UniProtKB/TrEMBL annotation:
This is ATP-binding protein. The lineage of its organism: Bacteria, Pseudomonadati, Pseudomonadota, Betaproteobacteria, Burkholderiales. It comes from Comamonas faecalis. GO terms for molecular function: ATP binding. InterPro entries: Fic-like_C (IPR049514), RecG_C_sf (IPR038475). The keyword ATP-binding applies.
Length: 427
C-alpha cells in the first residue's frame, strides 16, 4: 500500500496515474511476475494498492533472493539459499541426484550388512537377499531420473566426503576449558560406519568406566548410558544439515560430554516443540528411511524421548538441549560419582607399566630408570605423553612444563584406575 503514513493514515501519492502503468511494467521486467495495481481514493487523496499473489516458486531480484522475517529482510546466500530453493521445489537436500556416482562405486560389504539388519529387524522381506544392488536402491527410493541421490553416497559409498564436504564426526578430549585440547580423532566413512566407529572410539579412548564386582562378575558403568549416547549420535547423523561443510563435533570433558550437530529445526518449530511429543519430521528423509529400514531408528519422532528414558532408567542425569544459530547442542552431564574417575584416553600397556611404577612423585629420568628404558624420546612419546593425554598422570608444575624440577604424579583418575585393576576378586 503506497500513499500512507506509519499510522496507516492516507497522505496521497504523486503521479498516481503514471505509477498505475509503470509499476506493473517494472515488476514484470525485473521480477518476471505479474501484479495488479489499484487506485484507491481517500477523498481527494489518491493511494495505490499492489496485489502480489503467492508464487509456488522463488522469485529473484536481479539474481538475488531476499527473505523477510517479521520486520527484517535478509539476502539468502550459500547453504541457506540452497535449502530455500529446494524447499520451494518440494525437494530435500539428500534427495538431489548426483552426477557420476555409479552403483559400482558403492561399498558392497555395507550393502550386504544393511540387508542383514533390515531382514533381522523385519523392516524388509527376505527376498532382498537375492536382489541386486540397483533394485535395493530403488526399494529405498535412493534413485531419481536415472541418477543416484546424495543420500546414496552418504549411506553406501566408502568415501562420502568425496561428494559431501564435512561428512564426518570429530571427537576431542578437553581439560577444564576449550583451549585445553588433549587429543582428537576424526571419524569418516559411510554414515553407518561413522555411528559404530564413533561409539567404539568413545568407549575405548575417551570414556572411563567405573569397575565394580558382583561376586565373580565384573561390572562396568560408563559416565553416561551407552544407549542414550548411541541414540544421540544417530539423531545427529540423520538430522545433520549436510549442506553446511561442518562435521558433527563431540567434545569430551572431565564432567560432561557435548554433541554439536549442524542442523536446522523444521520451519515454525521451536525448541519446546522439539523436546515435546511430536511427529517424525526428519531433515533428511531418504537417510532416515534407510536407518529405519536397518532397524537403527524409529519413525515416530521418539529419539529425544528414548534418550531421556535411557538416562532415567539407569540413574543418570537428564541431558539438556540448546538451540543456537546454525545448529544445536545436546549435553550429557556425568553423575557426581562418575566425574573424578573419568579418564580421557585409552590406558594402553605402556601406560599401565608407567602407572604401576608411580609410587611417588617422580621426574622423567627417575621413571625411565625404574622402567629400565634408555631412550628419552621413545619414553616421552610412548609412555609419558599418552599418560598425560589420558588424564591418569599430571605435572607437579604445569605452569612450567620444561622446568628441570618438573615431576609427575598420579591423578585421582589414575589412582582409581590402579585401585580397580588391583582390587582382589571375591570368592
Amino acid at each position: 500500500m503506497i500513499g500512507y503514513d506509519d499510522q496507516g493514515v492516507a497522505v496521497g501519492v504523486d503521479q498516481a496515474s503514471k505509477l498505475l502503468e509503470d509499476i506493473p511494467n517494472k515488476v514484470r521486467d525485473v521480477l518476471g511476475m505479474v501484479v495488479d495495481v489499484d487506485l484507491v481514493m481517500h477523498g481527494t487523496l489518491p493511494t495505490l494498492h499492489i496485489h502480489v499473489p503467492a508464487y509456488p516458486y522463488p522469485i529473484s531480484y536481479k539474481g538475488e533472493y531476499h527473505y523477510r522475517s517479521g520486520s527484517t529482510k535478509q539476502e539468502l546466500k550459500g547453504a541457506a539459499l540452497d535449502r530455500f530453493l529446494l524447499r520451494k521445489q518440494g525437494i530435500t537436500w539428500d534427495g538431489v541426484p548426483v552426477p557420476y556416482l555409479q552403483v559400482g562405486d558403492l561399498q558392497d560389504s555395507t550393502m550386504k550388512r544393511f540387508r542383514e539388519l533390515a531382514i533381522h529387524n523385519q523392516r524388509l522381506p527376505e527376498t532382498i537377499r537375492e536382489e541386486g544392488n540397483p533394485l535395493l536402491l530403488e526399494r529405498l527410493r535412493l534413485t531419481k531420473d536415472g541418477y543416484l541421490k546424495r543420500a546414496t553416497a552418504l549411506l553406501f559409498h566408502p568415501e562420502p566426503d568425496r561428494y559431501v564436504t564435512g561428512a564426518a564426526i570429530k571427537i576431542g578430549a578437553f581439560g577444564k576449558n576449550d583451549a585445553d585440547l588433549l587429543h582428537h580423532d576424526e571419524i569418516t566413512g559411510n554414515l553407518f560406519t561413522q555411528v559404530e566407529t564413533a561409539i567404539e572410539v568413545l568407549k575405548l579412548k575417551y570414556l572411563k568406566a567405573r569397575i565394580s564386582y558382583d561376586g565373580l562378575y565384573r561390572q562396568e558403568r560408563f559416565p553416561l548410558p551407552m544407549a542414550a549416547l548411541r541414540e544421540a549420535i544417530l539423531n545427529a547423523v540423520v538430522h545433520k544439515d549436510y549442506a553446511t561443510p561442518v562435521a558433527i563435533q563431540i567434545s569430551v570433558y572431565p564432567d560432561k560430554l557435548m554433541i554439536w550437530n549442524p542442523g536446522q529445526l523444521p520451519e515454525a518449530w521451536t525448541l519446546e516443540k522439539l523436546l515435546g511429543k511430536h511427529a517424525s519430521h526428519p531433515h533428511n528423509p531418504d537417510i532416515a528411511n534407510a536407518f529405519f529400514r536397518a532397524g537403527l531408528i524409529e519413525s515416530w519422532g521418539r529419539g529425544i524421548e528414548r534418550i531421556k528414558d535411557a538416562c532415567t532408567q539407569d540413574g543418570y542425569p537428564t541431558p539438556t538441549w540448546a538451540l543456537e544459530p546454525g545448529g544445536w547442542w545436546v549435553t550429557f552431564g556425568y553423575a557426581p560419582e562418575d566425574v573424578t574417575g573419568q579418564v580421557t584416553g585409552q590406558v594402553t600397556e605402556p601406560i599401565q607399566r608407567l602407572l604401576s611404577a608411580m609410587v611417588a612423585d617422580h621426574s622423567r629420568s627417575e621413571l625411565q630408570r625404574i622402567l629400565n628404558l634408555r631412550h628419552r624420546d621413545s619414553f616421552v612419546t610412548t609412555y609419558l605423553q599418552p599418560a598425560l593425554a589420558a588424564g591418569v598422570i599430571e605435572m607437579t608444575q604445569p605452569e612450567k612444563p620444561t622446568s628441570r624440577l618438573q615431576k609427575y604424579r598420579l591423578t585421582e583418575a589414575g589412582r582409581q584406575w590402579l585401585a580397580a585393576v588391583h582390587k582382589p576378586t571375591e570368592a
